[in-house]
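Handoff note, outgoing to incoming analyst
You'll be picking up this chain. Sequence as last confirmed:
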Amino acid sequence: MRVLKGMVTALSCMVLLNACIKDEPRNNECDIESAWVQEGEPYEGLFFKKSQMTIEKIPSNTNEIVFTIRPTASLPEIPVHFTLTQGATINPANGSPQDFSKGPVTYTVTSEDGAWKREYKVLVREAELPSFMFSFENVDTEQQGNSTYNTFFETDQTGNRHNIWASGNQGVAIVQYNWTPDQFPTKSVADGYNGKGVCLNTQYAGDLGKMMGKPIAAGNLFLGNFNMIAVLINPLKSTEFGIPMDKEPIRVTGYYKYKPGEKFTNSKMEELPGRTDEASIYAIFYRNEDENGNKIMLYGDDVFTNENIISIAQVKSLPATDEWTRFDMLFEGSDADPKILSSLGYNLTLVFSSSKDGASFEGAIGSTLYIDEVKVSFKDHEEE
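Most recent structure output, in case you need it:
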């Protein structure tokens, strides 16, 4: 009996020892986290400035990476390097020279455990900004979990796609499941001022959103990027405002309809009697790089106060109306430096929201803003 007990004890120890030395599970993620072109000739000369050679914090839901370069007669093979999730591998090889002159190069990332693969299209595109007459006719759907929502994009004169619009729909998809595009705060509608339009609607963010102190989700749309990594840590850093510009904006016009919701509440869902929700339409032009070449980005917490802002345009009042009504706003501030402008050294953002204080999770559920046919006019380029 003692021998049997000893064997059982020894066997148990071997099992425990085996459990202790067992390999950790291998990573099943296969994301590109950042991408960069190595410094030095002939590559640096392709870019307007050195900082454009690196793309950091690539959103986990994107499958396209775009490097913007100067117009060039001949594009050499370019070695693009990547930071991948731990243990992942990439094909073609990381840092290998590739021919981007014929279009995007497809890279396949494989997770450390080999069970998952993901394809990315990497483009090197000459700078050619889209038309700044926004009719919102170009609409896609994005899937996140079991939900799908609308995204908006623009095209330039040669048909290239520019994913310059972002919204908070990604954040809403975290707390809402099995939603279709027409349930999200930001969506496409068929009956715009002319053709399709955009509907922005302030909604209840669900019990989970309320528990997290984020009880409402205002419909919003802006030029820039939505950072999913920041949304749960610091929501005001999730909105990265602005896209590079080589022209100085002076005016924004467009059409809107607006109806405020019935009850204005704060971030604790407490009603604030006497307050009526307001929509918000504004644009900001700012330096996107400091004197030392460090990138500058506007976020929700400094969008009106950042010291690098050059000029601001804002619609002072958006009265409730059921009819399409024209809005017009002029940029006020300083003039742009032509040299900085020529190197894409400024960013422009254009922001629409169904609740002016939605970033602080204050507003009225049901507030609805429609927008369409938005035009940005530029210095020395304004059409009659």
